[in-house]
Design goal:
alpha/beta; Rossmann fold; four-stranded parallel sheet; 13 helices; 4 strands; about 55% helix; globular; NH(3)-dep_NAD(+)_synth; metal-binding; magnesium; NAD/GMP_synthase
Length: about 250
């Protein structure tokens, strides 16, 4: 990776988005995971100030993640606020039926995004996305939840590249060593949910993206099936909702 060029591009991208929108800065949800931690660091480097973080735990949240998020806020001197959202989540669950852990996680993600956009209006700041390319391609996120944002500076970096860039920037080892998790329910693990490590997933995604037939032949068939299924079934999450052009039928 050409770290220097990547960082220059990201820096310019963030500054440009703020300038064009005539806003004061950015706001992000800081989970204690590597993706949001890296985005916070990149925004701090680009803007120096006006980077605001919301920490929004539920009773399912790992205390270690909250501690790491607080540590990062203090290290980067970020303005932040802790919002316990369990009571809001309980209200949603009370109105739902036969809710499972995935739907509960979706509720939590959408509650967090609602609060981010509310505080973005309060702070006159843009909501910055924290999903990486691997997650976006696989649809591994909640539409109108953690996938919603005004712009995303890391959405073209695979998860494995996120780790590389984080190491290059000397992000605290706590973020680099911990198992990837959306922290939506107790002991939730991204790689457990997906069935494969991000290292293997990224190899497969890159092979598919480049149509590398030799690399594709070496892939585990179960991995390839999972990737193709998710790429197809979750394609709708990667585009804006399609609007039917009625004028075509009026001619």
């Amino acid at each position: 990776m050409d770290y220097k060029q990547i960082l220059q591009n990201i820096d310019k991208f963030i500054k440009n988005k703020i300038q064009l929108s005539n806003t004061k800065g950015v706001i992000l949800g800081l989970s204690g995971g590597i993706d949001s931690a890296l985005v916070a660091m990149l925004c701090k480097k680009a803007l120096n100030e006006n980077v605001f973080a919301l920490l929004m735990p539920t009773r399912f949240s790992n205390q270690e993640n909250l501690n790491d998020a607080l540590m990062l806020c203090k290290e980067l001197k970020l303005e932040y606020k802790i919002l316990e959202i369990q009571n809001i989540l309980d209200t949603f669950l009370d109105k739902s039926e036969n809710t499972n852990k995935i739907r509960t996680g979706n509720f939590a993600a959408r509650i967090r995004m609602s609060l981010l956009y509310d505080y973005s209006a309060l702070k006159n700041a843009l909501v910055v996305g924290t999903s990486n390319k691997s997650e976006l391609l696989l649809g591994y996120g909640t539409i109108y939840g953690d996938l919603a944002c005004a712009f995303n500076p890391i959405g073209d970096l695979y998860k494995s590249e996120i780790y590389e860039l984080a190491k290059h920037l000397n992000l605290h080892e706590n973020f680099i060593k911990k198992a990837p998790s959306a922290d939506l329910w107790e002991e939730q693990s991204d790689e457990k949910d997906l069935g494969f490590s991000y290292e293997l997933i990224d190899k497969g995604l890159k092979a598919l993206e480049n149509n590398d037939k030799k690399a594709l032949e070496k892939l585990d068939q179960n991995l390839l099936n999972m990737l193709n299924s998710r790429l197809k079934n979750n394609a709708f999450k990667r585009v804006m909702p399609e609007i039917l052009s009625l004028r075509v039928f009026c001619k």
